[in-house]
Design a protein that fits this description.
It is built from eleven helices and 17 strands. It is α+β, with helices and mostly antiparallel strands and about 425 residues long. It has a twelve-stranded mixed sheet with strand order 7-8-12-13-14-1-2-3-4-5-6-15. A three-stranded mixed sheet has the order 9-10-11. It has a two-stranded antiparallel ribbon with strand order 16-17. β4 and β5 form a beta hairpin. α1 runs antiparallel to α5 (about 175-185). The radius of gyration is 29 Å and the shape is flat.
């Protein structure tokens, strides 16, 4: 299984797992749900500061794909984050304040990068109360409660020192309605993506197909400068008469080629998929999904950036377990998530993915963020963008039997 396939499988599992976890946190009735919901609201919205430690691991077909740990400290409008990729050893450290962000901190060489938050980050949330917050929470409770299904009967409380643990264990036959809808969403992949109402054409290499079409049409090789200078560098270039004429001629030529492929598709199906090879030859399929099945079966290449899991044949969430520990003070202190999902690709080969995540939350309303000794460090100077030098080029270009005296701007290589 390719790296892209494994990543896609991980995304499916994370989506399924987090959807179920979110439903548990937002539901407001049943055995233990109200307690967990209130704890979630209090932990997320009412605590001005907190410290969160997260570890998670994603594995596809028994091979670890991602494994990371993260420390997040929040204090009103301040935020500190330190993360480590356990597979690569790479680390990331950030201090965020309402007006500044310190990143790429090198403690060994005592350097850092500084950004103005007004220009380089999303606005910080304000600590004061949001009058709409209560309404949003109530709507979320009503919505999730409607979709919880029989999961309410699977929520179990276990007493522990300093609070209670609430455990949810679901298997395929116990999945709540919302998760069943998620399964249906993936299984009906083509329909829910929005069934195309027109023909689609995809190219292995569009430039190569254009060159092949030109030679087939004229018997000659296309002048490479036509394609190179078709996207003129400046607005002034577009306004020059011969430049504009060449641009229009090339645009019409490209449209003519594309129309040929679209018409070939329409002769097969109103939602056909046309796969164009580098030499301009093509295969027409009744739909994109049909293209995937046939090309994979025949071991032919797929369009760039795609893989077998784009159209899963079946998705099964084998199990999901969530634990929520709530302190006597009413705060969430620990969340444990485990899940396993299997996906069957269009060739009916089954892939299995697992997720394990642990989240510890403490130091409510006592967390303090202390900035490193900035005065002892040096701010890194970011490289300024240098506008490349330009020059004027002139050329006589022949295209489809016509001659064009073009005049254009190009960048000078150093």
């Amino acid at each position: 299984m390719t790296k892209r396939m494994k990543t896609a499988l991980c995304v499916l599992l994370v989506a399924a797992t987090l959807t179920t976890a979110a439903v548990v946190l937002l539901s407001g009735s049943g055995n233990g749900y109200e307690t967990v919901f209130r704890a979630g609201v209090k932990s997320l919205f009412e605590a001005d500061s907190k410290t969160v430690k997260i570890t998670y691991k994603l594995a596809a077909d028994g091979e670890t794909e991602e494994e990371s740990e993260m420390l997040v400290m929040i204090e009103n409008g301040k935020r500190y984050e330190f993360s480590t990729d356990r597979l690569t050893g790479e680390t990331r450290e950030i201090y965020e304040f309402p007006d500044k962000r310190y990143s790429n901190i090198d403690h060994e060489n005592k350097t850092y990068e500084l950004y103005d938050m007004n220009w380089n980050s999303m606005p910080q949330s304000e600590p004061e109360e949001d009058p709409a917050q209560d309404t949003v929470i109530r709507i979320a409770k009503l919505f999730s409660d409607f979709f919880m299904g029989n999961a309410k009967n699977q929520f179990v409380r276990e007493p522990m020192d300093g609070g209670n643990r609430y455990v949810l264990m679901l298997k395929t036959e116990q999945m709540p309605d919302l998760v069943n809808l998620l399964v249906k969403l993936f299984n009906e992949s083509e329909e829910v993506r929005g069934l195309r109402d027109s023909v689609t054409a995809k190219y292995m290499d569009k430039d190569a197909a254009i060159k092949a079409y030109y030679k087939k049409l004229t018997g000659n090789e296309i002048d490479g400068r036509v394609m190179e200078h078709y996207p003129f560098r400046t607005w002034d270039d577009w306004a020059k008469p011969d430049n504009e004429r060449l641009n229009d001629a090339y645009f019409d030529f490209e449209n003519e080629m594309e129309e040929m492929y679209y018409e070939a598709g329409e002769n097969v199906s109103p939602t056909a998929f046309v796969f164009v090879n580098e030499d301009g030859t093509y295969e027409v399929y009744a739909s994109e999904k049909d293209m995937y099945i046939k090309r994979l079966t025949e071991e032919k290449p797929l369009p760039e950036g795609t893989d077998e899991l784009l159209y899963p044949n079946d998705l099964t969430i084998r199990y999901f377990r969530a634990e929520f520990e709530v302190s006597d003070e009413g705060y969430l202190t620990h969340i444990s998530l485990k899940g396993e999902v299997s996906v069957q690709d269009v060739l009916e080969k089954t892939h299995t993915d697992t997720l394990e995540a642990e989240i510890y939350i403490d130091a409510y309303n006592t967390t303090k963020i202390t900035l490193f000794d900035v005065d002892a460090y040096t701010e890194k100077e970011r490289e300024a963008f240098v506008v490349p030098e330009t020059a004027i080029g002139e050329a006589t270009i022949e295209f489809l039997g016509e001659t064009y005296e073009v005049n254009y701007t190009y960048y000078v290589e150093e």
